[in-house]
Amino acid sequence: MSNVRNQEAGTAGSIFVLRLFGVPVRFHFTFVLLVVFLGALGLEGPSGAEAAIYVLALFASVLLHELGHALVSRRYGIGTVEIVMFPIGGVARLERTPKPREEIWIALAGPAVNVAIAGALIGAAAGLAGSFAWDKLFSRQAGDLPGQIAAGNLVLALFNLLPAFPMDGGRVLRAMLALKRGEAAATEMASRAGRYLAIAMGLYGLISANFMLVFVAFFVYLGAVQENAAVLGRFLTQGVPVRKAMVTDFRTLTHGQTIRDAANLLLATSQQDFPVVHGDQVMGLLGRSALLRAMAREGPDAYVSGVMERNFIRLGPAMDLSEAMPLMSQAGSCALVMEQDKLLGLLTAENLAEFLLLRRLGLGQKL
């Protein structure tokens, strides 16, 4: 699967491992735990070792699948920020959203890699044995590890070609629909198909007591919802400057005030984050979480200047909101809107969510 990421920071909870063709490959910590479990399983006996090798070979196939996305996207001038390996598969995060015709070929590249791996394994097995028993390809016979890996790759390819988000087939569907309906409407349709597929998978998993399928269905549903939300947010914010969504009625703290003063201001207002200033100069930002931690650790008489965040996120008032949204994930709940060194307002997660809701309801032109 491929996805879009607009900042350089790595995925939270992931560990950098290596670079392949210039693309950083990171393993999520849950993937590392799975590898440790498979290693322990392989120590239990020959059958356990074969099962562990089979699963690890499939994860290697998934990594090559994601590299297929990355290499084809590079052909269209789209860099890959990272490839992240999760227990249920991998994600290639791209620098920008591909155009519809680009996305078709980028999405198809992944399943094509799995088909090529399966073809190579089947060809090698047939060359060594003189023939290949096609009727036993999916039988999972013990001792036939190449055949099992080939079958697993074919299943990966077919599963990813399902026309539902966030699978590659859903991206192909979205790209084809976007040629006539636009990206937002196309994404909504493909995402809806993904949610329906996830519900069907989850119900079947519950009925058949296949809880691994339920686990996969949960992540498919979550991926479909998140992708649709990301695209909708990008659609609603393109061409809109930050100043349209910023909070202009806000309170500040001076660097000489105490945590007690900040706590009183927190209670007296609905504001959660407070710029800390010295005259006209912005010194830092004190958020609610940092304030509460400081109250517990330092006491109410500690100065805000000692606990404020000095490396806060700054946004220009003319900056496009679609470019500011990825930065908000780094900023947490608040970023400061500044023109040179002058503080103009705050862009908070809460206010941004309300702004997007109003835009979606068609009130954006009145803001």
Task: Outline the structure in words.
The protein has three domains: 1-161, no CATH class; 166-237; 242-366, CBS-domain. It is 54% helix and 16% strand. The protein has eleven helices and eleven strands. The strands form three sheets. A five-stranded mixed sheet has the order 1-5-4-3-2. Strands 6-7-8 form a three-stranded mixed sheet. It has a three-stranded mixed sheet with strand order 9-10-11. A hairpin with a 2-residue loop joins strand 4 (80-86) and strand 5. Helix 6 (183-207) runs antiparallel to helix 7 (211-237). The longest helix has 30 residues, at 46-75. The chain starts with a strand and ends in a 7-residue tail after the last helix. Mean pLDDT is 83; it is low at 363-367.
Topology:
Elements: E1 2-4, E2 14-20, E3 23-28, H1 29-42, H2 46-75, E4 80-86, E5 89-94, H3 100-129, H4 145-160, H5 168-181, H6 183-207, H7 211-237, E6 253-254, H8 259-268, E7 273-278, E8 281-287, H9 288-297, E9 314-315, H10 321-331, E10 334-339, E11 342-348, H11 349-360
Parallel strand pairs: 1-5, 3-4, 6-7, 9-10
Antiparallel strand pairs: 2-3, 4-5, 7-8, 10-11
Helix pairs in contact: 1-2, 2-3, 2-4, 3-4, 3-5, 5-6, 6-7, 8-9
Distance linking N and C termini: 37 Å
Q: Which range does the strand content fall in?
A: 15-25%
Number of H- or I-type helical stretches: 11
Oligomer: single chain
Give me the Rg, rounded.
25 Å
Q: How many β strands by DSSP?
A: 11
Calculate the mean pLDDT score and round it: 83
Please tell me what the overall shape is: elongated
**Domain module count:** 3
Biggest sheet details: 5 strands, mixed
Please provide the ordered H/E string of secondary-structure elements: EEEHHEEHHHHHEHEEHEHEEH
Which structural class do the helices and strands define?
Answer: alpha/beta
Outline the low-pLDDT stretches.
363-367
Strand order of the largest sheet: 1-5-4-3-2
Residues in helix, %: 40-55%
